[in-house]
Fold this protein.
Amino acid sequence: MRLERWRYTIPLRLRSLFRRRQAERELTDELADHVERETAERIRRGAAPADARREALVAFGGVEQHKEGVRDARGWRPLENLVSDTRYSLRALRRNPGFTAAAVLVLGLGLGASTAVFSVLDAVLLSELPYPDANRLVRIYNQNSPTNLWSLSTVDVQAIAQQQKSFDAFGAARWSDAALSGVGAPEHVAVGRVSAGFFQALGVTAAQGRLLQRGDESPAAPAVVVVSHTLAGRALGGAAAAIGKPITLDGVSHTVVGVLPPERADLAGIRAVAWPALQLAAPTRRGPFGLRAIARLKPGVTIEAAARDLGGISERIFPLWAAGFQDKTARLTPVPLRTTIVGAADRSVRFFAGAVALVLVIAVANVGTLMLVRTSAREQELSVRAALGAARSRMARLVATECLALTLLAALAGLGVAASGVRLVATLAPGLPRLAEVGLDVRAVGFLAVTALLSALLVSLSPLAQVLRRAATPSLVPDARRAGTSRSSNRTRAAFVIAEFALALPLLLGAGLLLRSLLRLQQVDPGFDPVGVGSVSLGLPAARYPDDTARQIFWDRLAQRVEEIPGVVDAGLTTSLPPDNGGDVNNFDLVAHPVPQGTSQPVAPWVGVTNGFFRAMKIPLLDGRPFTPGDSGSAPPVVSVSRAWAARYFPGQPVLGQQLIEGGCTECPRTTIVGVVGDVHYLGLANGAEGVYAPLAQVQARSASLVVRTRGAPASVFSAIRAKVAALDPELPLVESLLLDRLRDSLADPRRWTAMLSGFAAVAVLLAALGIFGLMSYVVRQRRREIGVRIALGAQPGAVTRMIVGRGMRYALLGTVIGLALAAVQMRWLRALLFQVAPSDPMAVLGAAGVLLLAGFLACWLPGQQAARIRALEAISTE
Amino acid sequence: MSKPTDLVQGTLDLLILKILALEPLNGWSVGQRLKQLSADVLQVSEGSLYPALHKLEQAGWITAEWRPSENNRRAKFYSLTRLGRRQLARETEDWRRLSSAITAVVRLREA
């Protein structure tokens, strides 16, 4: 029954909606036909033709009224109103291109930027890791304090593999570089040496061939490797063709047994192109700690239960290896894999999101002000409508439709901004994980839609209130413009402007603090002279350089040959490049001041160098002696320390001749300090300059960087160095860099943060200034007559300007003060990004407040000037 | 606008359905036929007739069709649908109940 009815009614309704014009024409025809028939009838009854028609028309009555009756009966009303309201709104918006463009631009930028940031936030933080049952994945660390976590050693991994009861699967990986050869020119590639359990724990499957199996880990097994989809496509003729082909990694030939799917560019945060089997040699001590362990919790096992299980293992293995590792508080600890991957990004993305949210709110407040001012300007029109009988609800709908239409346009603009902005955000946001997953998807568009709707609601609230109030007391008096200036609508407008200033201040202050911090960082003495210094990094594959002797011979020859190159002033070798390549970090114990039993030992960057390195970098020898050829691998171990190291561990005491125990190795010979050198930052410019240098011959370096100071541009000698290296070994891949570039790159992240927040702050200040400009211009227009009277009575133009500017500055000042209070709460979030600048830095606080107030002053000055130019007579007579 | 509401509320629908049940007609003829059949007692203004026709059409009880009329012009003819026939039966029944009830009350002898 109902269904049958719909068969009739639905097409009719649709026709009413979409073919309104035709339906209207038919209605006109139908009514005209009626009149024709009535006329014919009257003629038939004997009336004169001319009279008959007139009488018929009179009898018929108002055609338009009948039509209205029919339209009501057909139920077109709500739809018709919507259509006509929308048309009206669009027409009104077209008539005010300046207002429309400003509002759409402001709101579109706000919406687009927040959508772009949402996409990044969504991909990085909100969505699950791309593994089956990813919430069961953990990474296992050694931990001895809430903030100090480090990777596992062979001992740890083997003990967990044998004793754990909490995991379905458990695997380990070592992320390193390797020289890839046998397929085109030799190159450095990232490799992840992994156990079979690693793939199993993550739940990854192969696109071609197989993944690693338990047998592959045995040293006796043939060397096999799983490769990434990109490597297979780039060098091995595609995924299918790659299976069975050999590739050479660090001089060892491996057979490709499997290819990963294309979307697996990284696994558990390890970005590598080749995944050979991890072969663990029998351990001789508890360290070193270089293995990343991943495990999958058994269903129903909590992370706390797994922590107890692993804690038991820690206690059982500690006594076995206590000779080389005395930190009894260290515990094997599981941490959700998601936390380990997005943990650090969490803060930066939230910070980013907070900044963009502030800008969006300011944008909405701004458009709200614009809308209010506009509604006020239309007071008279609305009054006329109300007087002509427009229902209050109808007028409210009109205003709401206009806000909605405006927001819709802004949302469309925002979609464009977001589409191009999402890549920009991804590149600007420093060091984010999972960026490959970032894109504008359905969720982002949904976010845009919801945000736009909320904005429309906020933007339309106060104009709506104004219209409803207005319509309650319809007024057509000539003073309508002044009658509409109710105190409360003025207060609402002022509140919007005050809010804009209050929200702009934290952004401005944040940008100021980051800028001061960046300037401080740029003033940090890196401790070396980067001008004219280049570096060439290389690693020696174990297959061809099996022992320390072979490697040392190579390093000695290389240093010697490079010094012969014309243009090279000084050359040396190092295992770490400042300012950001920390290289090895080692723990040590001072013989003079040992740490208490069972607590953790201090650590410092541990750099293996030749004397040429200090000369090439112009790092001064402050005390003691340089390294000599006598400090060989078989000689008693010696080190030089940086001045900062000496000041921290032997404040005011002689350092030379002091002894230390390296790496917790109590049975090894003691190391003696023989020199003190200048401070160099190896862990980033913002971090300390404590460092320990050992002779290269005593650190058994598998890889090192050649550092050369040249007479001309360093790049000019790179080809000569390539030739010298190739003469020694043609299969070594080289990585070249300039120390000046490294110094600049080291500040890239702080620079990006500063640029980003400065951009947001600039937009916020601009919007706040626009807002107060709009408000004060409106006030001047509104009080035109009053100002005219004042001028007529002899007020000086200067006094009028002061009055307007003073009024505006009251709002700006109030907003700034509220903003300072807000900032006091928020700025601790910024603390981690600041270097030697307190969040309450007076320069930054005063600067931010000053810039904001100055912008406010300039924005008020123009309307103030305008007010001063009002011609008294004109103003009084025009109203 | 004067609205001669001589008709009991809701009865116009019933009358239109009944008239269209006899034969398909255009709007003007419906009004004429109503006058004829009721011997000029019942009259409906155009301001009520056309909205009623369109409402019945929207409800799916009558359907409209443009076709050439006797004087060779296109006119809109309304006819009853199957749903309309059922509705007519229902409304006729309702009307009988209502009118007999009213008649019964009106006929009561005053004491």
Observations:
- The longest helix of chain A spans residues 337-377.
- The radius of gyration of chain A is 38 Å.
- Residues 476-484 of chain A have pLDDT under 50 and may be disordered.
